[in-house]
Amino acid sequence: MECPKCKAPAASHARFCDQCGLNLEENAEFLHQQALDRYHRGMIDEALDFWEKALQQKPDFSRGFYYKGLALYDRGDLVPAIQAFEKALENEPEPFRVYFKLGMAQYGLGDLAASIKSFQAALKLNPRSAETHYRLGLAYLRHSDLDRAEKILTEAVGINSQYTRALYMLGVVFSQQGNQEKAIEKFRQVEAISPTYLAARFELGMALYRNGDLAEAAEQFKGTVEANPRFAPGHFMLGEAYRRNGMFSEAISAYTELLELNPQDVEACLHLAECHMQLDFLDSAREAVDRALAINPDHREAQYLKKHLSELTTPHKPGF
Asked: In sequence order, what are the beta bridge partners of 23?
């Protein structure tokens, strides 16, 4: 640390500067240095105490309010963080970063209209910030304004063509708009840039599935579960893609692996039963339906299948 006045080295616990005699205990800049030191070491509560002291000495200290807001944001105290950022804006000559973090805190609190205004203000100050475009796009998407989300995320990608998060969310927007072809295009771009981006690979599979490309969708879902065997949605959708494609044995394997991860998945039990029925494995189908009813005795589809199966007999197969 250093004395704010003469720049001489100063110990963090010093009361006065040895060179110029400045009272460090009552100097907002030195208290700010002490706060930053503790903040960067993860000592959030102590850092906040020092920023409080600094702001008592200098009530218009915008940097102090900004960093106090950052510390509160990191601690999850979003309401006081927003208040601190708003105070920082009152005297901040270069407010881009303050508007950006204010938008982040407002977004985290669910105040989407306010976060949109903050991100818009940040973009006026720094129109080439791909990250701000991305965050504004997320706020529009969460606000169900798909057209604006598409526009602003497209601008983010225009600034940085390798911005995988923006490409991914643009794919999500296209998917929600019902434009699966464009969604597939964006998810493929993400996969090409970052092959380990599993969320993009899963969403690519979903877009292909919705588009009727079941075989390729299955390949994408298979890739997700190979990369993360505990990813239950991947197993479920792999089963769905196989089932809709008439590959019932493969679907049974996928649903069975899912039920090992999530034994309470009623839909997986019922779809497993349907696949067994397609292969005339009626005893196995009954077991799957009984399992579904054990989880939810009031499930109407399971009750229907139970009744339907009771009216069927297992066919005789040659050799048995």
From this structure: 16
- What does the pLDDT look like over 60-77, one tens digit per residue? 999 999 999 999 999 999
Give dist(CA 283, CA 314) in Å, integer: 7
Which domain covers residue 247, as residue numbers?
231-312
**Residue 320, helix vs strand vs coil:** coil
Neighbours of 239 (CB within 10 A): 29
How many distinct helices (H) and strands (E) make up the chain?
A: 17, 0
Instruction: Give the torsion sign (CA, 96, 98, 104, 106).
Output: negative
Any domain includes 76: no
Query: Tens digits of per-residue pLDDT, 30-55?
Result: 899 999 999 999 999 999 999 999 99
- CATH number of the domain within which 283 lies: 1.25.40.10
Q: How far apart are CA 108 and CA 320, in angstroms?
A: 62
Determine the Cα–Cα distance for residues 154 and 105; give it in Å rounded to an integer: 24
CA angle 150, 109, 121 (to 5 degrees): 55
Asked if the structure places residue 90 within a domain, the reply is no
Residue holding tokens 């019922």? 270
Global pTM reads 0.86
Given a contact cutoff of 8 angstroms between Cβ atoms, the answer to whether 207 and 187 are in contact is yes
